[in-house]
């Protein structure tokens, strides 16, 4: 079967959620995909769970890191061997609705989009819906500089984008933010948003994405190191980014 989409799932010690995440991919109504499970040197039963699915479905491959290298670097490894025309992402604690790939691929073909995202629900550790994010129809580079409303697990990117050696940076948080900005800047394109809730993003107490101090440090690096803004311009945009984040969450 032609693998039109390569789905990348970075996993680290997530035996609690990884089964449901994998099932949400395998249950997609769009079936032409390969699933690359990126086990970042887990020490729990994550690998054993992934291996169970490997034996059941030929579309699955496991990439096992010999040491913990982080989600961004794991995704970079997988992108290099991915065979699909599109790259999709799902974190191991998030979930897709069954028509996610079908709707989004059709949407991207219609828009001739290099990169797209969708609206998504926010759920807690008990799978209860607590909020949701509605995507804008078009997200420009200038808009994205000020507010990152794109959920990683909603994103699909044309594979040929990565021919320009774009990759995730070595950051604990915000690595996806850098990626989106790099793509929009280099290709002078926009993110097209599909206003359908097709993903459930899990908000957990202990996740890196919940660490506000880490976000501030990494947010500064986004502007200063990766966009080459001077210190004052970097601080300016970091303040705007933080204000917009607070507006969305309170």
Molecular structure report:
With 250 residues, the chain is α/β, with parallel strands linked by helices. It is built from eight helices and ten strands.
- The count of domains is 1
CATH architectural grouping: Alpha-Beta Complex
Strand segment tally: 10
CATH homologous superfamily assignment: Spore Coat Polysaccharide Biosynthesis Protein SpsA, Chain A
CATH class: Alpha Beta
Q: Which descriptors apply to this entry?
A:
250 residues, alpha/beta, Spore Coat Polysaccharide Biosynthesis Protein SpsA, Chain A, 38% helix, globular
SSE blueprint:
Blueprint: E1 5-11, H1 18-26, E2 33-39, H2 46-56, E3 60-64, H3 71-81, E4 86-89, E5 95-96, H4 100-111, E6 115-123, E7 129-133, E8 138-139, H5 141-146, E9 156-158, H6 175-187, E10 191-202, H7 212-226, H8 231-249
Helix pairs in contact: 7-8
Q: In short, what is this structure?
A:
This protein is α/β, with parallel strands linked by helices and 250 residues long. Helices cover 38% and strands 22% of the residues.
């Amino acid at each position: 079967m032609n693998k039109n989409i390569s789905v990348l799932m970075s996993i680290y010690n997530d035996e609690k959620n990884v089964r449901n995440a994998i099932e949400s991919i395998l249950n997609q109504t769009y079936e032409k995909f390969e699933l690359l499970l990126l086990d970042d040197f887990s020490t729990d039963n994550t690998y054993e769970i992934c291996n169970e699915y490997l034996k059941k479905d030929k579309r699955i491959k496991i990439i096992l890191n010999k040491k913990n290298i982080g989600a961004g670097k794991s995704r970079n490894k997988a992108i290099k061997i991915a065979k699909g025309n599109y790259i999709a992402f799902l974190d191991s604690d998030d979930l897709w609705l069954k028509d996610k790939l079908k709707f989004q691929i059709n949407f991207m073909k219609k828009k001739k989009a290099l990169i797209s995202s969708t609206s998504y629900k926010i759920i807690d550790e008990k799978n209860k819906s607590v909020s949701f994010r509605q995507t804008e129809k078009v997200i420009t580079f200038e808009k994205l500089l000020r507010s990152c409303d794109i959920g990683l697990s909603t994103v699909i990117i044309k594979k040929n984008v990565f021919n320009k050696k774009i990759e995730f940076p070595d950051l604990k948080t915000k690595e996806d933010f850098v990626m989106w900005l790099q793509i929009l800047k280099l290709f002078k394109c926009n993110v097209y948003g599909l206003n359908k809730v097709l993903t459930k993003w899990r908000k957990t107490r202990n996740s890196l994405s919940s660490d506000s101090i880490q976000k501030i440090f990494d947010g500064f690096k986004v502007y200063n190191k990766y966009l080459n803004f001077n210190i004052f311009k970097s601080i300016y945009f970091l303040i705007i980014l933080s204000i917009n984040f607070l507006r969305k969450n309170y």
